[in-house]
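We now fix the convention by which a protein and its fold are recorded. These numbers are not coordinates but entries in a learned vocabulary of local backbone shapes. A record is reproduced here so that you can trace the correspondence yourselves:
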Amino acid sequence: MNDVKVQVIVKSPPSEIWKIWSNFAEAPLWDTDVRKCQLDGPFQVGTRGKCVLKNGLNMPLKLEAVSLHESYRNSARLLWIDLEFDHQMRRISPDETHVIHSAKISGPLSFLYRGLLRKALTAAMTTALDNLCTLAEQRAIGAPGHEKTATPLHLV
């Protein structure tokens, strides 16, 4: 059971989203709760890393599952809290992708802090997914062979 689940339709092919997801160093561009993220190896199952949050807390993480251009799951530990973040996408059309981010909360006495964490994670993950959407769409517009969808403004 997921404690938090957010989703969005992105006007971008899955390849653009995958480039963003798999480059942990760029995470602060779209996840505004993160100051810095790094992996200590390639983007594959078993690789460990850490994120430093804006509040200064270090969050060690591990890639638990990676399905190229489809999904990845990472576990993380924040103080006494065990978190599992799942990132999935499904191509809807050549230029649209359904993206889902979800999180599970567990650990000792998790029933005490689950409600508060759900609220905080829902807000943070919604903002992050909105930012990911914007970044992927901007990059897709700049990609060769992709027509700009914005309507130009004309002075009257």
About this structure: The chain has three helices and seven strands.
